[in-house]
Design goal:
The structure is a homodimer.
Chain A: H1 2-9, H2 18-28, E1 32-34, E2 41-43, H3 45-64, E3 68-69, E4 75-77, H4 78-81, H5 85-91, E5 96-101, E6 104-112, H6 117-127, E7 136-145, E8 159-169, H7 172-192, E9 199-202, E10 214-221, E11 227-237, H8 239-244, E12 247-249, E13 255-257, E14 259-266, H9 268-277, E15 294-298, H10 306-318, E16 321-322, E17 325-326, E18 329-331, H11 338-347, E19 352-356, H12 358-363, E20 365-370, E21 376-380, H13 384-409, E22 411-413, H14 417-426, E23 430-435, H15 439-449, E24 452-457, E25 476-481
Helix pairs in contact in A: 1-11, 3-7
Chain lengths: 484, 484
């Protein structure tokens, strides 16, 4: 069995070096590969299949709220990018510039979209004339480019996949309603589908999106106590509309500016799944997002009847539903040893393993192993069709509960700067602390502790009366943390 | 009713100016919009929904043959693009070059992928070691960029959406088998789903893909008699493998080069659908690809009970299946006049319209109108659930038959250059004519007639013994035509 251990031994323990553990899992679970293009990753089949599941389920939720998909050009002319002042300042330093088309230099250089607000504004300016044309609730699935200096797979790469929703509304109220609605949709998706609990809140002015009036965020907590901004939803008010001249004739015939929003989630979520759920045996995928939910591994597969029975089991399960869809089941009948197959299935995070060998068949049962707990169950073959969907639902629920408990246990309150600092070092996680509302304090905290304001949670508490930094009267409770 | 006619009057008759008719339909059916980025289009909801249907159905067919999806970087370093000589010569003149990242010039410029053979080769070189790693059957859905001088929506634009499959195999036979298999899959998809008949064949050396050993194609015939190359599948032999050094250890431990293929279809297909099926009232979508299959239009909707009955009809149909999926049905209860709604539904190519008003309800029936023929049927409300799926299947079949008949009627044989020329002018379409195999003749025909060799059809006929151009003994029957 020496060979069987190799795969697990190939990854660093998460307690020894979390960053290295992450990189090892990403590689050994075959989610990505590095490419010849610095800072850009290749998303391999096991990684892309997770993204396909995210896309499909998120897209269905979008469409239920009236979202329509479109596709915009990937290039933005420099003059268009420059139309909204804050926006261009935020993005210009990190865009890739196209200067030549074929053998000729371009008259105006084009940037590869880092985000598409400017393109949508230019579009809306042309297609919105009357209140009858509103609202526009468009979204696109695409890749974007940001020329980052340091990169990490899924978390920060020069190109990544995402969706970006862009909407235009007649009133400020409608825009705010859409902004919050999408944030709630994101939070629900993360919690229900990715089993990843999040804190909803508003970003401080320092942390908000370039050009936004308000940015809302969902913040998740990784296993190492660092925060991951997992989705954002922005209300632009009429700022972009004024910069681009997007006006409509209202019912009373007056000319009004539209109010806009945008919201996005990306392949970064895959990094979140890894760091919230993974362990020293590798990836752990919540069943609702797992490309393969059940892996059947035959024992002594050369013996008569074993592969037949395993295949029969597979077809029974494929015809069964879990979470309203057919169970995603595979049979590993390759030449590898069962032990090697076990550790592969664990590394790849497949939620349930079924072991079936000659003795099991004789006894009319199989062994079912949960990836999340390692628990082994003996299940009668006649019960398997009913048991598996139930078990998948249970695993989904338990994984969420476990992550939720971790988040709660790693969230503490600080009422003094000392306490803040001590907490950060002793039990890394979220810290709830009061803030005066002054950016100087935010800057100072970041400089001295490395922690940033993650958000001003919607659920405010009055944990003390004074700003943790300057001691002046507090305005808001902020959730702080070191972040990816 | 003057207003009702406006939409139809807004498009040029196809008999007057086919190119203008196409542009008008594309705009008035709200498939695309032009953008501020020259040569790049915005795909609007009605257009993108067609692409989503293509993607979903094509992707399912891919996966049945063992295809796995991945995502590769959108940038190709210049040195990588240059590794295969023919390939770089074919693509370098039409790529967009990124020269700056953020504020700094790049050490090596990057092109935005025009196609990703080089990236996949670089990837396979790293992940293929042994025969056990083969085959690799990967695909990606993405956008690509080609810096075209003249562009047309869907048919030729600087950025377009497509899928590109890239495979690596142990043997030449396996690679050829995959190349043909994908071509057949493409042909079946076009005929079954898009109701678009195609001719399968092999490209001449002049027309093959840059770097390929053999290129296979499916060619469709548009309403104006021009050909549209609708999908291609390439066999690279071991040419790229040698250029990139992609070798594997065979069972006998010898080092062998892999054999590769690639194959792609794009948003160009949407242009094909428009030009094969459309008419002077606008778009005509085959039911299997139509984002909305049935539009219910209430008559006198302010009258009591009309909207309720229409909504009831909608929910009945949404719960019914056609082609194995829920019927895609909408109810237009907007404030517009019924006449205006009719012409909108026609312009947008929705296959079936249901009209229902107070008199219909009283009589327990509704009026069902086919978009493809204009035929009106009275259908009892109790029969509608059974009738609609049947009708959609019939429309799908009839649209294919009609397009097939058009293709056959516009395919003729020429045994002399004169006949060839006369046919091209009098009845534009495909011409079957013999060819000696010499590129000089191909060039001469193109120069003198504007027709190119579309393919050497798999179904060869001996229509004469001599080359249509030089009169020397013929080697192949070629399908010729003017093309998009």
């Amino acid at each position: 069995m020496a060979e069987d251990k190799k795969l697990v031994e190939a990854i660093t323990s998460m307690d020894v070096d979390f960053a290295q553990w992450y990189t090892d899992v990403v590689k050994k679970a075959e989610l990505i590969d590095y490419s010849s293009v610095k800072g850009c990753m290749i998303i391999k089949p096991a990684g892309y299949a997770i993204w396909e599941n995210i896309q499909r389920q998120l897209d269905a939720r979008f469409k239920e709220t009236g979202v329509e998909n479109v596709y915009m050009p990937m290039f933005i002319p420099e003059s268009l990018l420059q139309k909204e002042k804050d926006h261009v300042e935020g993005f210009a330093p990190e865009v890739a510039w196209v200067t030549h088309g074929g053998l000729e230099p371009l008259q105006e250089r084009l940037c590869v979209r880092p985000t598409s607000e400017t393109l949508f504004c230019d579009f809306y300016k042309n297609i919105v004339q009357s209140y009858r044309d509103l609202p526009k609730v468009y979204n696109q699935w695409c890749s974007v480019v940001r020329w980052e200096k340091t990169t990490r797979p899924f978390l920060r790469s020069r190109e990544f996949l995402w969706q970006e929703g862009h909407t235009a509304h007649a009133t400020a109220e409608e825009a705010e309603e859409r902004t919050i609605r999408m944030l709630n949709l994101y939070a629900q998706f993360c919690e229900e589908v990715l089993a990843m609990p999040v804190i909803k809140g508003r970003k401080t002015d320092k942390e908000k999106f370039a050009g936004a009036e308000a940015t809302y965020t969902i913040e998740a907590l990784m296993h190492d106590g660092k925060a991951l901004q997992s989705g954002t939803s922005h209300n632009f008010g009429d700022g972009f509309a004024k910069a681009f001249g997007i006006q409509y004739a209202a019912k009373d015939n007056s000319l009004q500016y539209v109010h806009q929003t945008s919201w996005g989630m990306s392949t970064r979520l895959i990094g979140g799944i890894i760091m919230v759920h993974g362990d020293n045996s590798g990836l752990k995928l919540p069943p609702r997002i797992a490309p393969v939910q059940v892996m059947i591994i035959p024992i002594a597969q050369h013996k008569e009847g074993v592969l037949d029975k395993a295949a029969e089991l597979k077809s029974i399960l494929a015809g069964t539903k879990a979470f309203g869809e057919g169970v995603r089941v595979k049979l590993d009948d390759s030449e590898k040893t069962p032990g090697w197959k076990f550790s592969e299935q664990e590394m790849r995070g497949i939620p349930v393993r079924i072991e079936i060998g000659p003795k099991d068949i004789e006894a009319g049962r199989c062994v079912v192993v949960r990836r999340d707990t390692g628990e082994k169950l003996e299940v009668a073959l006649t019960d398997i069709e009913a048991k598996i969907p139930e078990l998948l639902a249970e695993i989904q629920k338990d994984m969420f509960e476990r992550a939720k408990k971790h988040l709660e246990e790693h969230t503490c309150v600080a009422t003094s700067f000392e306490e803040f600092n001590r907490n950060l070092d002793e039990k890394p996680g979220f810290i709830k602390a009061m803030w005066c509302g002054n950016q100087d304090c935010e800057d100072e905290i970041k400089e001295k502790t490395g922690a940033t304001s993650r958000c001003m949670p919607f659920e405010q508490e009055n944990v003390s009366d004074y700003c943790i930094c300057c001691g002046k009267p507090a305005k808001k409770m902020v959730l702080w943390g070191r972040a990816y």
